[in-house]
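We emphasize that the prediction below concerns an isolated chain of 309 residues; any contacts that depend on oligomerization or on bound cofactors are therefore not represented. The input was used exactly as deposited, without trimming of termini.
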Amino acid sequence: MIKELFYFLIFPGMIFSVVVGGVLSWSDRKITARVQFRKGPPFLQPFYDLGKLFYKETILPRHGARLTFLAAPVFALFSATLANVFILLPSVFPGSGFSGDLIVVFYLLTIPSLTYLLGALASGNPLGALGASREMKLIISYELAFILALTAIVIKSGMSLSISDIIAAQQEGGVFAGSLSGVLLFVVILFVTQAKLALVPFDMSEAETEIAHGVFIEYSGSAYALIKMARYVMLFALPALMVTLLLGGFGMEGISILWSVLKLVLIILLITLIRNTNPRLRIDQAMKFFFLWMNLLAVAAIVLSLINI
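Result of the prediction step, given as a C-alpha cell string:
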C-alpha cells in the first residue's frame, strides 16, 4: 500500500509529473517567445502561476452545479496522474506493468477532456457551454484516430496489450518509428496529442479571443490551479506515451537517460513549432482533419503493420 501511494503521489506520480510538466510548459513558452522575438518567462514562472492561483479565492458560479464544477478538476488531475504512472512504470521498473494496461491508459487519457467538458456545462455560463460543445466534437474526432493508431501498435508488438511487451518488442526489433508504418503512427499520435492538449491549431474549445477561455471561463483560484496541474501532467504524459510506444521507451542507466530526455524534448519542440506556425482551425475543419486524413493515415499504418512494413 505504501509503495503504491509513493508511485501515485511522489514518483513517477503527481509531484514528479507536475514538476516535469511545469518545466516542459516553461520550455514551450520560452521557445514560443523566441520564435516571436520575445524574451519569455523565467524558469520558475509555471510554479509561480500555481502558487498565485492557490493563494487566490475560488469564485463559484451562482447558477451552476457547484459540486460537479468543483469535482471536475480533481478527477482531471487524478486520471492524468494515474495514466502517467502506468505509462512510466514499465520503463522505470521493467516488468511492473500488467496485461491490458494500454487499454487502461487510453481511457484514463480521455477522462481529463471529459471532465473539462462537464465542468464547463456545470458552470452555467453560455460561453462555457459553447466551449464544451466544441470540446465534445473534438473528442469524437480524434479519439477514433487515436484508437486506430494504438491498434496498429498492438499489431506491431505481436498482438500484445501490455506496455512492457511493447517496449520489449522495440528493444528486440528496433523502435517502431523506424518503419514506414511507425512514421505514419508518429504523425497521427503527434496531432492527437496536440488536440488532447488543446494547443493551436486545436484550441477552439478555449479560444481566448473568441469565447474568453471557453471551457475554463468560470474557473479561478484553487480549482483553476488543479486544472493547470492536470495540464502540466498531460503535457508530460502524452509525449511520454509517444516515447514509450514508438521510440523504445525510457532508459534509466548511463547515457540512455540523456537520450530519453532528448526524445522527450524533441516531441515538445515539434508540438511547440506546430502551434506557432499554424492558425486556429474552425471546429468543422478540425473534425474533417481527423475523420479524413488522420484516420486514413492510421488505417494505412494498420495495413502496413500487418505486412510488417
